Amino acid sequence: MKTRKKILAMLLAGMMVLGLAACGGSSNSSSQGGETAEAGSSGEESKKSEVSLASTPEESAPASEASGTDSSDKKIKIGYVCYDYTIEIWAQITEALVETCESYGWEITTITCDNNAEKQVAAFENFIQAGVDGIISSCENGDSVMEITQEAIDQGIPVVGLFYPYDALCTYSGVDLYDTGYACGEAAAAYMNEYLQDDDDIQVIIYDWPYNEGLLDRSKGMIEGFEQNAKLDYNIVSTQYATSEDDGLTVTETVLQAYPDVDIIISQGSSSLIGAVTALEAAQVPTDSVRMFAADTTVNVLKLMQEGKYIWGASTYGNAHQMADPAAELMKTILETGEIPEPNMLDCFAITPATVDEEIVSY
What we know:
Blueprint: H1 2-31, H2 37-41, H3 44-54, H4 63-66, E1 77-82, H5 88-103, E2 107-112, H6 117-130, E3 134-138, H7 146-154, E4 159-163, E5 171-174, H8 177-195, E6 203-208, H9 213-229, E7 235-241, H10 245-258, E8 264-267, H11 271-282, E9 291-294, H12 299-306, E10 311-316, H13 320-337, E11 344-345, E12 349-351, H14 356-359
Parallel strand pairs: 1-2, 1-3, 3-4, 4-5, 5-11, 6-7, 6-8, 8-9, 9-10
Antiparallel strand pairs: 10-12
């Protein structure tokens, strides 16, 4: 029996060598001025990764243990790097990811990085030093963690992206942020076309959050989704920075002083709209005089929509588990088989008052 387990362990180690070499290959091709993946996988760094894994096959767990079904010999340890789970949607995604990983029998440690690139790198370094079996990464600015991601892979630690893809990852469950923004802008235009009139002097305000390339894409999609589907004349009278609930409260208080007749607010994120609702209610603004749209959503935003409180549309990829679970599944495949699965792209759609009752059930 002992010999059989040793043989199984050696087989898994061999599969992991091939799989992780493939991870590193794609990164090398992008970070070394256009070298091919084949050339990258034969480089010195990939060789070090192979030696590290293959030299101690006895320490590798058989596939049955890697799946988390038998934790008596080795418990799989996963690290999760989240750019900022003080934001409501990311707190929910983190909680869902923890639940799913624990259901596999894994031990998962999460680190929030306060939207700070240096903290993201430090989180990776901590997980590498701790010798985790895999890292799941939700880093909005992939460029800041490209090198440390490759370092983890070179040391035999697979890295899977959740939501935000970047080149160095083994694979990812990701989104197209432009599409997210477009769905939000399109929903805002549909509302305007149906409920407002050309002679209403339509005023639109944007709550933006353009601090990295991904969010610039979402902002672009948001504007183009609105502009390309608008059938009435309108004016974008102001663009404000707002990301958190507190931002939404203070910015909306200021906006209402300058533009008391605002008709539509389109926001990069949903948290800011929760604060905006508080400001609108405090100013006793009628709920049917201004409508708001977000390029993401949470259950609290959907509850406000359900109650008819200003929010009229929100882009989504589903509930927290629908967003988190595919990344965990990708990691599970790597750890069980040593193979690198194809990336998974989440589908985006907008929730409106017409569909909120049906959609909120899954949140």
